[in-house]
Amino acid sequence: MSHSGGGTTAARRSLVQQAALAVGAVFLLVGILGFIPGITTDYDTLQFAGHHSEAKLLGVFQVSVLHNIVHLLFGVLGLAMAKTAVAARAYLVFGGVVYLLLLIYGLVIEHDSAANFVPLNNADNWLHLILGVGMIALGVLLSRRTLGVGTTR
Question: What is the DSSP letter of 37?
């Protein structure tokens, strides 16, 4: 008996799509958790934007309302772009580049200055490095077979 392709959507997703879906879901979760007192310490100091927000997700990563909204939007974008392999790859690679740019931004600004409007701290910088490299690697490596990247036909 042959199977005519009536399987689940998850079974038809490529690895790069699954990765974009997972990354998007994590960003969505992080955005939500940033608004939950207790998971976000010093919640009473949460500001819309700026370095004066002393609220920290998991007691480590400095956040603000704007920072949480960016995580939520990045999560929704990941879920939406996971619909096709090409879009999923673009989300992971370009998203990774955005996080590497945020790393550079976080390294060059003074953390106590008005330029730190997101806000960022050293833990955020390390996380942005890991996210940037990791997302680019996922986007490139997981799409090689699906999109034929680097192959000759």
Answer: B
Domain assignments of the chain as residue spans, ordered by start? 13-145
CA atoms within 13 A on the CB side of 32: 8
Q: How far is CA 91 from the centre of its chain?
A: 9
H-helix or E-strand containing 57?
strand 56-57
Block residue for tokens 């879901």:
25
Say whether the peptide bond before residue 37 is cis (omega within 30 degrees of 0).
no
pTM of the predicted model, to two decimals? 0.83
Q: For residues 132 and 137, give the distance between their C-alpha atoms in angstroms, rounded to a whole number.
A: 9
Q: Which amino acid belongs to residue 54?
A: E
User: pLDDT tens digits, the chain, 153 residues: what are they?
Assistant: 444 444 445 558 899 999 999 999 999 999 999 999 999 999 999 999 877 888 999 999 999 999 999 999 999 999 999 999 999 999 999 999 999 999 999 999 887 888 878 788 899 999 999 999 999 999 999 998 766 555 433
Query: What is the distance between the alpha carbons of residues 98 and 145, in angstroms, rounded to a whole number?
Result: 25
